[in-house]
């Protein structure tokens, strides 16, 4: 599926054309000049530490067995550190106690660039409408999923002296 069928500036049907060494969706109207660059979207992810464990959550749209980190889109006028703490507050109802940078990870399937942080948090979990469930998982019991935010979990746990193993999970690209 193409992200755009019509130019968002002038409503002319877009075409595929080489631009910058790649095929891109472009407006053929020379007076418009729109090019859909399809750059990755920045997303923040939180390894939420709460009561000595990590919180994993399940989005309402996910299968019942899949849990992952708290994630969200970065807003235009906020730093990643502020954005990741905002997501923890919004999605879990917890009070973040800071944000410690873990790393940047690609998630090519969704055209996202993930900026991951460790976020210690306090309070009582109160899920918002985006989440169906959550669970505490002891550091030593986590198996990371070999994609996107799973690598952030792995790297953070390794920095704490743990040796997490990958879960048996089919990787989709």
UniProtKB/TrEMBL annotation:
GO CC terms of this entry: cytosol
Name of one Pfam family that matches: NUDIX
Gene Ontology biological process: NAD+ catabolic process; NADP+ catabolic process
Catalytic activity, reaction form: a 5'-end NAD(+)-phospho-ribonucleoside in mRNA + H2O = a 5'-end phospho-adenosine-phospho-ribonucleoside in mRNA + beta-nicotinamide D-ribonucleotide + 2 H(+)
PROSITE patterns per the UniProt record, alphabetical: NUDIX (PS51462), NUDIX_BOX (PS00893)
InterPro entries noted in UniProt: NAD-cap_RNA_hydrolase_NudC (IPR050241), NUDIX_hydrolase-like_dom_sf (IPR015797), NUDIX_hydrolase_CS (IPR020084), NUDIX_hydrolase_dom (IPR000086)
Top-level taxonomic group: Bacteria
Cofactor(s) this protein requires: Zn(2+); Mg(2+)
Domain Nudix hydrolase intervals: 39-159
UniProt GO molecular function: metal ion binding; NADH pyrophosphatase activity
Keyword entries, A-Z: Hydrolase, Magnesium, Metal-binding
Family under the similarity heading: Belongs to the Nudix hydrolase family. NudC subfamily.
Descriptive protein name: NUDIX domain-containing protein
Organism whose genome encodes this protein: Stagnimonas aquatica
